[in-house]
Amino acid sequence: MVASMAMVLGVAVSPDLPFHEWQPAVGGVVAGLTALFVVALLDRRAPRRVVAVGAATFALAVAYDAVRGEQGTLTLAEGQGSRTFEEEGPGGRRLGLHPLGDAVVLEAVEPDGTVVLGQTDAQRSARASARRAAAVAGYRLGMPERVPTGGARLVLRVSGGAEGEVTLRESEKGRAGDLEIAVSKYFPDFALDERQQPFSRSDEPRNPAALLDVTRGTASWRVFVIRAMPGIHHPQGLDRTLTLADVVPDEAVRLAVHREPAALLAGLGLLVAAIGVAWSRW
Amino acid sequence: MGALAIAAIASAVGFLAASIVATVGAVAARPRLRTVARGIGMVAALALLPMAGRPAARPLVAFAVVAALPAPQPLALALAAGAAMMAALAPTAGLGSTAPALAAVAAAMAAHALGRSLSAYLAKGRDVAWLSSAAGASAGGFVVAIDGGHALRWGYRVVSGPARIDAPDAGLVLGLALLASLAGALLLAADALAVPASASAAPPGASPLARMLGRRALMLAAGLALIAAGLVFRASGEAFPLGVTRDLGALVAAAGLLSCAVPPLLAERASGDAIDDEQAGAVISRLVVVVALTAVLAAAVEGWLRSGTYLTPLTARLLSAALVAFAASETAQLRIPAQVLALASLVLGVLRF
């Protein structure tokens, strides 16, 4: 009986057999089976009871963290701060914003991907990398990963007369040569839909293009620029050539956020269970 | 390829040789051969030790060393050959971790426990054809598993990032190895099944021809698996992506399993002490659970320190393996299938890290 229950539990908790994705009720079945498993172990001689105590402690700790623990992601650009993170439920379901214990600021991103995080109230910094998580604002933050934000700085070049170059973000305005240029719309991955309307297929700058509002004195033009085809659009009356010379995508860092109050108890449970098995009659 | 990698490949060959010598020593009841196998295994393990400096190879080295240490167990040594092959091609850089190394130790001990249970099964005078058939089916499973089952279409591809290199010669040999191993498995299983239960005392097998063909099919499959490993190795050129490394390990382990499956079919009578083997198997099974639980604890601590959570996929995978190993240590009737599952889940835990 004990062996059968251990086998079923072992198969049910395996991440390689995603029973939870097929049927959400599996979580409840696993909880019930764990309780039965512990009871069955208790009904044995002394060493098995030690295993039962360890298994029960571990199971309770995991259950507590599943109910009261918190997990999610925090995405910050360099210099940006936040008092909340995006909380996730079981299966990565988004639950909305959840407050952190303090404001967390991404102070710097080092070349090896290590991030330096500051806490506004505590006036201290912590470092998180792929090798080590950091305790910040009552949570453990780790696994930093660079992600595109969808925004970018567009390097626009004017030629064919008064030459110049300007770097602008979407809805920003700047001057290059004798032209006043504003980025009306940016398409990171430009494409046309079935009605020949422009849209962006993704946030990745795979085929960047932009629609510009260009003015000189009282004259104004709408100019379309695309990096793949420089100088493709020549509006009537504009004696300059505008090209999208480069795109510098904006990047942020996404951190995994966890709070598991019963982590120590879970470790203790595992240790007691291992001692219990080792203590059993050989 | 560096000197360390060449030494590790030589170590894989040594483990293969040790597994065959250990099998012959066990079925022929010749302790001297078992001593020779132990010596070969020890030397092979020593040759592999310098690879422990590479974090990615550490669990594989741990597996091979523990497989060679306690006793010359054919199954453990055959799997150690695959581990040594993978260690030889492991990347030099990587993130060191204690949990997979502990899981590998538990997996090697699980291989020992399973080996002792199989010895007890044979010592009771049971038909060896079932075990040889299972070895053939397992080897066939290994061949199907590599490269996403491309052997079923007589193909093999080396996938390295965006690049894909077709190796039709390797695919052809893999397909033949699959056919030979399955043919051997089916012939031996059919022969064992054809013997009525009342005839257990009679010479094993219903048809000597079927048994001979099955045995030769397994030998052919072992040779083809080794040739396929050579062709895959050559097709990979200088770079060995993780997938190719695993494929080579699986092929070498398959060749080892098939080689160990043949000598017992030639034995005239059962040998070994069933009670001694069963007791040793039970004790080692219990040890497997202790080490597996320690690996779960290590994975939880490492996950908490690195990712911020102790509930990582590695923790869940090793917990699952520890529970299955616990089931295997608690049951007497279905011990062998449970031990096979425990070994498979522990090996999976190490390989999927």
Helix-strand layout with pairing:
The complex is a heterodimer of chains A (282) and B (353).
Chain A: H1 2-13, H2 19-22, H3 26-42, H4 46-68, E1 70-76, E2 81-88, E3 94-109, E4 115-119, E5 124-128, E6 134-136, E7 139-159, E8 164-168, E9 173-176, E10 179-187, E11 190-192, E12 198-200, E13 209-216, E14 219-226, E15 241-259, H5 263-279
Antiparallel strand pairs in A: 1-2, 1-15, 2-3, 3-4, 4-5, 6-7, 7-8, 7-15, 9-10, 10-13, 11-12, 13-14
Chain B: H1 3-27, H2 31-48, H3 58-68, H4 74-88, H5 98-123, H6 128-145, E1 157-160, E2 163-166, H7 168-193, H8 208-236, H9 242-261, H10 263-266, H11 274-306, H12 313-330, H13 335-351
Antiparallel strand pairs in B: 1-2
Describe the protein in words:
The complex is a heterodimer of chains A (282) and B (353). Chain A has 282 residues and is an alpha+beta fold. Chain A folds into three domains: 85 residues, no CATH class; 87 residues, no CATH class; 101 residues, no CATH class. Chain A contains five helices and 15 strands. In chain A, strands 1, 2, 3, 4, 5, 6, 7, 8 and 15 form a nine-stranded antiparallel β-sheet that branches. A four-stranded antiparallel β-sheet of chain A has the order 9-10-13-14, with no helix packed on it. In chain A, a hairpin with a 2-residue loop joins strand 13 and strand 14. In chain A, helix 1 runs antiparallel to helix 3 and helix 4 runs antiparallel to helix 5. The longest helix of chain A is centred in the N-terminal third of the chain and has 23 residues. Chain A is elongated and about 95 Å long. With 353 residues, chain B is mainly alpha-helical. Chain B has three domains: 96 residues, no CATH class; 109 residues; 143 residues. In chain B, 74% of the residues lie in helices and 2% in strands. Chain B contains 13 helices and two strands, in the order H-H-H-H-H-H-E-E-H-H-H-H-H-H-H. Chain B has a two-stranded antiparallel ribbon with strand order 1-2. Chain B is globular, with a radius of gyration of 20 Å. At the A-B interface, helix 1, strand 7, strand 15 and helix 5 of A face helix 11, helix 12 and helix 13 of B.
